[in-house]
């Protein structure tokens, strides 16, 4: 049975807290695949408790155990709502010995994967669609016999397809060259993949739009996962909507593999300063804007979009955003979800020629509000901080946060929010 969280904040809106964030699910899910490809030579430390990571870890562990049993039957693998697990496993299982049916939630079956599947087929994978052309579930029979080492791939739909291919590249007999067509979306995630591979001995070259990885052996080592900057973004939001805020986020690094660390710069627009502390970073609300931007491009950090759009709306800033094209194919159509829920505080988000503009002229805060979350963790976490401005914010299906930040509600309580469960 799903439950709703009734979120409120009594008394002065002053936040003074320290929050230890869980590990980045993006780093974890790469580390797990790399460790499996290295056959255990590469170890992983500080694994996240994000459901997407727990799921992938469980799948890889059971595959390791089963390979010892040498099962020939098709093995059903269910990634649930985890996009990275679906994309990374499509490539990983293609290279592995065995027959697999790779599936996920109903929403996962609507998230496109054809670009990755076709690239895998081109290099020799035996992979087909079990239901609808271009979408999960997938039938995969490995190991692939490599037929090509160069493949063209569209870069503007999801960077996860590219990361998935780059991670298996070193174990392919001929290596791999990816020629990226169109503008590369979510580029920092490709950089993260290449940086993590490099730290365990895998070299690459990236010239123009071509990335090449030759066949190479993994070096023994340990990948230590950093706390999650996407999760940190909700604390920036809380700081921005509070009257006063001093929030300490230990172990977080200013310079990070995670592109979402750019929240540090973006939040200057809303008066939030970031400083390095002895243990990590510290954020505070200075009450005055430190930067002005009228159009913000979020192509390199799509997971920050909901957080930033909701903050701007709540602060009544008629800002515009670009780079939001991929939001429609994530956990839900995040544009439609934002439009529906922002309407509840009188704000519209309108698109014209791929520019999305907020109109906050009718912004108002009702006494109570109920936010639908559309099976999307980021809808819950982006809207919950509105409890600093609205007497009671009901977040429907509160368990959605598990996907990336399972202790979100406990952390809100620690910071002084009241959370009642209905
Ligand atoms: O590679 C990754 O870990 C991710 C890449 C991004 O997806 P797209 O490349 O599809 O934008 C991001 O939205 C997702 O949450 C995690
Ligand atoms: C888009 C996301 O995840 P994924 O694509 O891995 O499901 C996300 O965490 O916001």
Counting helices, strands and paired strands, the structural category is alpha/beta
Mean pLDDT figure: 97
Largest sheet: 4 strands, mixed
Q: Pick out the low-confidence regions.
A: none
Keywords:
UDP-n-acetylglucosamine1-carboxyvinyl-transferase, Chain; binds shikimate-3-phosphate; 4-stranded mixed beta sheet; binds phosphoenolpyruvate; 422 residues; 2 domains; alpha/beta
Q: Could you characterize what this model shows?
A:
Helix 11 links the parallel strand 20 and strand 21. This protein has a four-stranded mixed sheet with strand order 20-21-1-22, with helices on one face. The chain has a four-stranded mixed sheet with strand order 2-13-15-14, covered by helices on one side. The mean pLDDT is 97. The protein has 422 residues and is α/β, with parallel strands linked by helices. Helix 3 runs parallel beside helix 5. It folds into two domains: 214 residues, Enolpyruvate transferase domain (UDP-n-acetylglucosamine1-carboxyvinyl-transferase, Chain); 200 residues, Alpha-beta prism (UDP-n-acetylglucosamine1-carboxyvinyl-transferase, Chain), CATH 3.65.10.10. 30% of the residues lie in helices and 24% in strands. It is globular.
